[in-house]
């Protein structure tokens, strides 16, 4: 979990500050690991990973899409009976909350991306495993985003950070 938090923090900063250098990110990583000093040994690996992600096509697309937002907190109220992706209908009024890693303008709508730093060695179909594990979460994020920013469409995907793959979630 601490590794994922470190990588997320670095990706957030890199997207917010396009001119951030590796040295800037290294200083941030040092600060982000104050409470987990054992992670300091892997800061170079985290910086290499973030640099690789920044070279992926989705990164340039997000930057070039006009509006981009990172680490977007949300909370939306669902009335009793409202459908919840992956969970049926809520029985009582419910507040759905979370934090969207990256969302950007995409065509006439939005593209919502959620970073995943999982290690899935030995899994024959990593994309399917990620979708099985996280699709409900991302669908709930899309539901919330569409309530706040209704558009003609919001696509959602997982970013397998270690491979740079973008895995769509229907």
How would you describe the overall organization of this protein?
With about 170 residues, the chain is an alpha+beta fold. It is built from five helices and seven strands. The strands form two sheets. A five-stranded mixed beta sheet has the order 1-4-5-6-7, with helices on both faces. A two-stranded antiparallel ribbon has the order 2-3. A hairpin with a 4-residue loop joins strand 6 and strand 7. It is globular and about 50 Å long. The two termini are about 25 Å apart.
Number of beta strands: 7
Number of helices: 5
- What about the largest sheet? 5 strands, mixed
Strand content: 25-35%
- Intertermini distance: 26 Å
Strand order of the largest sheet: 1-4-5-6-7
**N-to-C SSE string, H for helix and E for strand:** HHHHEEEEEHEE
Shape by Cα distribution: globular
The secondary-structure class comes to alpha+beta
**Low confidence ranges:** none
Mean pLDDT: 92
Helix percent reads 40-55%
Which structural traits does this protein have?
alpha+beta, single chain, two-stranded antiparallel sheet, globular, 170 residues, 41% helix
């Amino acid at each position: 979990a601490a590794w994922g938090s470190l990588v997320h923090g670095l990706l957030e900063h890199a997207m917010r500050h396009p001119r951030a250098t590796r040295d800037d990110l290294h200083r941030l990583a040092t600060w982000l690991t104050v409470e987990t000093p054992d992670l300091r040994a892997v800061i170079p690996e985290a910086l290499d990973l973030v640099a690789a992600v920044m070279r992926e096509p989705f990164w340039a697309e997000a930057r070039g899409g006009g509006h981009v937002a990172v680490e977007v907190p949300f909370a939306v109220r669902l009335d009793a009976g409202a459908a919840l992706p992956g969970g049926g209908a809520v029985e009582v009024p419910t507040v759905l909350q979370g934090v969207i890693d990256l969302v950007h303008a995409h065509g006439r709508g939005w593209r919502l991306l959620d970073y995943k730093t999982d290690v899935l060695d030995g899994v024959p179909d990593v994309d399917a495993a990620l979708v099985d594990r996280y699709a409900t979460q991302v669908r709930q994020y899309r539901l919330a985003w569409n309530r706040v920013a209704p558009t003609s469409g919001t696509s959602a995907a997982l970013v397998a950070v270690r491979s740079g793959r973008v895995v769509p979630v229907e």
